[in-house]
Design brief:
305 residues; alpha+beta; Tetrahydropterin Synthase, Chain A
Length: 305
């Protein structure tokens, strides 16, 4: 069966593969478009697998809030250039929307779910082939509103993603502009101030222990009296809450207010009790060891016989 330039164009549009690859696929499958697609997919899966060992530390964080559910998701690629690619950005938006109704508890479960005609894993593999870089979903956070209130979200430049959940005793009060502004302000603050815990009571004991050990070493280095060190450490740990706990932090727009005081003030203004139930925050590439390229070494390798 013969094929035309129109067939090649259609195959390219459906697969994102190169012109010569499309011609070869059609030639080896007697012009059968569906068989050619499968042929390229088979090759594409192999190509995607080869990229699996690459480091994907760039990418984008997407966010969606729909009704009582909010999602933030981190999708990684290898270069900042690809992070600006329209196909990549569309995939981030699509997967964020998909997560709203997904039942997946983790990434592995998510990849097995069908998103349209294909599984999420198959969609990732095809996008990897089309773009030419390793693409992967690294992690996601999802919140479902537990009481009357609102889930707010904020994404800063695709690099920082935040969800916050606030509840209120009076449903009508949540419709007031002051409440809406409070949700937005706490989202912005969370992105800027990088809290690790909600309140002092939530601070992980291992975190406290690690900080205390650092303080102790510092104080001994400074020659402080051994008998005074435990009390000094206690004071430092008490101050730690104002640095790492969202409710205790100073509001970035008004350092004279803590976040808890800001919430209290708005509660009085709109006549209901507002509670900050929790937050989630993702920083793009956090914890991923990026590969540092050495141009001189690369050039030297290329020039060696």
């Amino acid at each position: 069966m013969s094929f035309t330039a129109k067939d090649v164009k259609e195959l390219r549009e459906k697969t994102g593969a190169g012109m010569m690859d499309c011609k070869k696929a059609l030639s080896e499958n007697n012009g059968d478009l569906e068989a050619a697609i499968d042929f390229l997919r088979a090759k594409g899966l192999a190509a995607a697998a080869k990229k699996a060992t690459r480091i994907a530390a760039e990418g984008m964080i997407g966010s969606v809030v729909e009704g009582n559910v909010g999602v933030i998701v981190e999708v990684n690629c290898e270069t900042d250039f690809v992070a600006k690619n329209d196909d990549f950005k569309k995939f981030v938006t699509d997967i964020a929307n998909f997560l709203i109704t997904s039942n997946a508890a983790d990434i592995e479960a998510l990849k097995t779910e069908k998103m349209g005609a294909k599984t999420v894993a198959e969609t990732i593999q095809e996008l990897t082939l089309k773009i030419g870089e390793k693409i992967d979903i690294r992690r996601f956070e999802k919140r479902t509103l537990s009481n009357d209130g609102k889930i707010g979200s904020y994404v800063h430049g695709g690099k920082i993603g935040v969800l916050v959940e606030l509840s209120a005793e009076n449903t009508e009060a949540t419709k007031k502009p002051e409440f809406q502004e409070l949700v937005n302000d706490i989202c912005l603050h969370t992105a800027a101030a990088a809290p690790k815990f909600l309140s002092a009571g939530d601070i992980d004991e291992n975190f406290k222990k690690r900080e205390a050990e650092v303080y102790e070493a510092q104080l001994k280095e400074q020659g402080k009296d051994e008998k005074m060190i435990p009390n000094i450490i206690k004071g430092k740990l008490n101050k730690l809450a104002s640095e790492v706990c969202l409710l205790e932090q100073k509001f970035v727009k008004d350092p004279d207010l803590s976040i808890s005081k800001l919430i209290e003030n708005v509660s009085k203004t709109i006549g209901t009790t507002i509670t900050l139930k929790g937050f989630n925050k993702l920083d793009l590439g956090e914890g991923i060891e990026k590969k540092e390229d050495n141009l001189a070494d690369e050039v030297a390798k290329l020039t060696q016989g």
